Amino acid sequence: MKANYLCPNCRTCLNIGDQIIISAKNEEGKKGILLLSIFLGDYEIKKHSSFDLEENEKLDMYCPCCFESLRNPMVHDNIFKILMQDEEDQEHEILFSGIYGERCTYQIRDKKVSTFGQDAGKYLNYTNLINMS
Ligand SMILES: [Zn+2]
């Protein structure tokens, strides 16, 4: 599927090729670039070997263009949001966990939620997830 992913703040396209480029910061405050897969449910993350991340580490994530935080605390403090435009130009909200190693993604449009990842159940109790769009 050919989709584009946008920053919800400045609406810059964040994907190049099959990857989404995100600025990140680890718990120690060290900064790095993450490459996420454009394919929902694919949790391969590419990063430079000098950017150390531990399993279950809480990340901060930012737009690489406007540097606005992508965190969506209205849903949960661990949840981040970007926008997706599908091939029919329909816009979806993509929510995903900022816990490194946690496999959890929600695709939301018209209050319908599709879930991806084995940890997706973790935040589904948060009723805000449905109400946020
Ligand atoms: Zn931005």
TrEMBL record:
Name this polypeptide is given:
Uncharacterized protein
Organism, as annotated: Labilibaculum filiforme
The taxonomic lineage of its organism, from the top, reads: Bacteria, Pseudomonadati, Bacteroidota, Bacteroidia, Marinilabiliales
